[in-house]
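Researcher: Please generate the 3D structure of the following complex. Treat every line as part of one assembly.
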Amino acid sequence: MNLIRAAFLFTCYFCSTLCLAQLHGPGRVPAGTGATLQAAGSGSSILYIYGPGGAAKRTVQRGAINLPGEELQVAGRYIAIIDGNSVSFFVTPASLQNISFVARPSRVPAAAKGAVQGSAFLFDAFQNLYLPTTKVSFRLGTQGSAGEDRTVSSNQGVAWVQLDSGRRGGPADFAVYSEGASVRRIVQQVAADPCGIHMKALPASDGNILVETDPILDCAGNAVPDGTIVTFTSIDASGRSTVDARIKRGFASAELPSAPVATLLVAAGVVQGNEIHWGGVR
Amino acid sequence: MNKILPAVLIVLAAALVAAATIRSSALAPATTPEGAVQSLLGHVKNHDAPAAYRYVAKQSNTPFPDFLRDVFGQDSNLRTYSSLQVFNTRVLHEDDREASVRASLQWASAVGAVYDTRDMKVVREDTGWKVIWPVAVQPKVPPQVIPVNYLRWDIVTRGSDDDWGAQNVDAPRVRIISMNPVEKDGNFILLGEIENEDTVPGFVSVQATLIGKDGESIAQEESFDKISHILLPKEVSPFRIDFPNMSRDRVQSVHLQPNAMLVAASADPVIGVLHQALQKDSSGHAVLVGELLNQSGQTVNIPHVLATFYDNAGKVIWVSDGYVDQSLAPQTPVAFSIGVRDDLAAQVHTYRVTVNQYSRDRIQ
Amino acid sequence: MIPYASRLVALLVLLGCLFAEPAMSERSPQVMLSFDATSASPRRVEESTSRAIQRDYAHAWQSMTSALAENRGDLLNQDFTGTARRQLRDAVEAQKQGGLSRRIIDHGHRLRVTFYSLDGSALEADDTVDLEIQYLAGDKLLSSERIPSHYVVLLTPSENSWKVRVLQELPQP
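Model: Done. Output below.
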């Protein structure tokens, strides 16, 4: 009798551990939140769990098996295996927490059409791409100007925008907002090409020709930055003389060699300025 | 053993006497004008300045320190990093009292071979033929304070860690504004100009890939030193890329890749290029001559002149360059001369000269 | 003497070749990949970029397959960056500690570009992939499954290739 009882108990135990062992998972769980697996039967077994950012092996008691949130931070498919039984479940992204904002370019000519571009990549706190469609707002503005706002819907965790640069030079705030997360970038709006360079020529104290431009501005009225090259050229009987002067405090100047008659030219990059006939008849 | 040592000493003494004799014969007075030039240049080649100076005519009025400076350099100029490798001489004119000898010199320098042709006047003195070696008097810059308040651009970039999407500063925008492929002596050459369109300085280079008839890349070269690498905002540089032994027939198309990097730079120094003119040199070859004037307060050690030549349609037809072996002292004009292709000289309608500079003590 | 030495060297070289670790391309079979960039916006994917993406993304799967099978995190460096590299390296480290591994048999991908940024600095795509995955503890096969999977992928360019920055599997719709 004892033998039969023992055989029955062993069969029950065997079946509970092997034959009837079943595993249930949570289906879907947000990243960073704990989950519970249900393993039928009792006693201890080895749990294997494989996920996109980890893997683990540990001894667990059957029944409700708790998986801590720290093990479930990476979004994707997980598989839990106990005694040959397996269950898959998905960790989905948590709430929107971070935005990677790629703003281009870092410098942009003023008043340029569609020159400012921004791409926002939405992430949760664990750097999982936040995939639900959500409203994303972009704003580009300089101090003292109304700026430009644009709101778009994200698609698979990405939102993008293309905006015109402002007419005024200087640092512009380029910001993106969504569900409480925000990121700000600085886009330096710089003067575009010089617009109508004008120079004048005077005799220098040492007999040379002193050439000097008016303040050099772009077509929107922004001062072309200091350090920009302005080439002065003098063509006279002895040949051609050039000085690559730099704009300093808004204008450029240089001394060209003395000559009774000379043609004076000025240019910055591919933009030509006025021409002066020095000592000759215009 | 006692007898061997004195014998060795005697032999050694004899050898030394012989060596001294040979040396004195090497410094023997030159009996011909060409011999004088050859002796002088031979000693320059051997870095023996005192010996070379013995062949300099008194009427040169060139003190030894000036001769030394002229031949072996100063202020870390290019001549300081050069040595005379090869020279050839040819008598142009000779009579009893004086002669004219043309010397073609090849210097090995830090920037490659430098060629020079010098017509030297040789005169007969009591101690043989001597070379007139005039040295341009270096004007002394009067003590003064030259205020330099040009811009410097410094850069703060983000760290090297992977902070993707974080704020950063872009490389400068550069643009190739012209390009002209030419073939010369079996070489395929790309000429053109590149402009820094941005408001920040850039380190630029141009890489060219030649695509063959089958669509495959057949050669790749870079502009190397035929370009101004540091371009300030709106600065334009010529570039020239040489493909040796490459026929134009083999080339289907050309891919030009301008590269630009944001670099810290200074807007100083300004170097004026004065009195530029196309001339013929003593050999009858076309050259572009002029003067460089360093308008800053620091010496520019090695100036590098780049010239762009245009035809009457404004197309770049040649780019040539040359290193000036003198340094540029502040406010002191220094002459330069760079070669122009003789076959193109007649087509040159206009030209533009830019100057690269390498300065030892300057922080870029 | 010399011929004998030469033969010995040749034999050693031959043995070295036989026992040397094969290159990754030999370890992991070629990845089959169909590529569709017609839905890409706001920028059209250039022909050269298309070729580069297909080459680099296929190579990334080969690297990942090898890294997870052999528990070698270094194999990920060439093709992964940022979050994807960190997560996969963590997975490899954890497998190594537990004596675990997983073997992926890749039956092919359908990659469809959904986003290509205006400045060309990021490209996002959907990947529908047919995978067979074997989970192992030591040499013991714990479980095996063949499943159609759906990934969202974010790639960014590096010096000379595109690297996977995000590789995130999505639940079946």
